Amino acid sequence: MEQVNDPLVAHHNERGFRTATWRDRYGAPCSIQESSLATEKCIWLGRDGLLSEHRGGRMHLTQDMVRKLLPLLQAFVETGKIVYTETI
What residue spans define the domains of the chain? Predict the structure, then answer.
């Protein structure tokens, strides 16, 4: 299978929320989007259009959840591995 290398495209969705879209390794559409949740800052992140009881295949993440994921993602960028030293 040929690897997809689409650029990340930033824009505002139809409701005015900041969004970025791209395709994953297998060509599936993915996105990150600001959430409309009024009680705390959150984002939607993941594959678009998957069927489930929740919003497609996307995760609804709080700022704290993203903060905990950032060191793992940064380690992957730098080493190609998910590196951690303790429970996050």
Answer: 9-63
> What's the whole-model pTM score?
0.75
CA gap 4, 87 in Å, rounded = 33
Successive 10-residue mean pLDDT values, the chain, 88 residues:
72 92 88 93 88 66 92 89 72
Residues 6 or more apart whose Cβ sits within 8 Å of residue 22: 6, 7, 8, 9, 29, 30, 31
Q: Which of 61, 65, 36 is nearest to 46 (CA)?
A: 61
Query: Which of 25, 27, 30 lies closest to 9, judged by CA?
Result: 30
Closest CA to 42 of 24, 25, 12, 17: 17
Residue 1: C-alpha distances to residues 7, 18, 68 (Å): 19, 32, 33
